[in-house]
Design a protein that fits this description.
Layout lengths: L2 H8 L6 H10 L1 E5 L4 E3 L8 E6 L2 E6 L5 E7 L4 E2 L2 H6 L6 E4 L3 E6 L1 H10 L2 H26 L2 H11 L1 H4 L4 H8 L3 H14 L1
Antiparallel strand pairs: 1-8, 2-7, 3-6, 3-8, 4-5, 4-7
Helix pairs in contact: 2-4, 8-9
Length: about 190
Amino acid sequence: MFEQIDQFVDRIISLTPEERQLFHSLLKFRRVRKRTYLLQEGEVCDFEAYIVKGCIRTYYLSDDGTETILSFAIEGWWVSDIYSFTEKAPSNMFIESLEDCELLIIDYKSKATLYEKIPKFETFFRLLIQRSLFALQRRFHSLVSQTAEQRYLAFIEKYPQVVQRVPQNQIARYLGVSPEFLSKVRSTIQKKK
């Protein structure tokens, strides 16, 4: 059950067998069914989840009910609302499973214990947050500097495994276009091939 997350951690920090055992003891395994909300707007996020299996999306709802998808996450990725988790503040986003999922979850108290007992995990999680920030910065840059076609092509090139698992209307929301517009973009791309 821990092999996948151990490989992920080993790429960033080295653990002794005792440290690895403690880390495992602080993780909770959880299976969730497709279309399960792990977090809803207004709740305080008390978890960071490593995805062993499945696909999850994070999104916001505008006042008129329009979804803005922030991210998709699949095997080997982490998902959480970092602001809500860190500040213990109500979240303004939703985290929902798009497929049946298997997760390894660490809660706030267990993460504090992890930092206390194995300080190198502070480096581990800092690097994860930095990578997330870099990805968000790249995404923001693409939203303001690229056409919808360029954003779609970059998305399918960077995340081919996500494209096959996520409905096109949700990809459109992620890219900041309507599903109809994305359909036109895809048609244009097919004609160019």
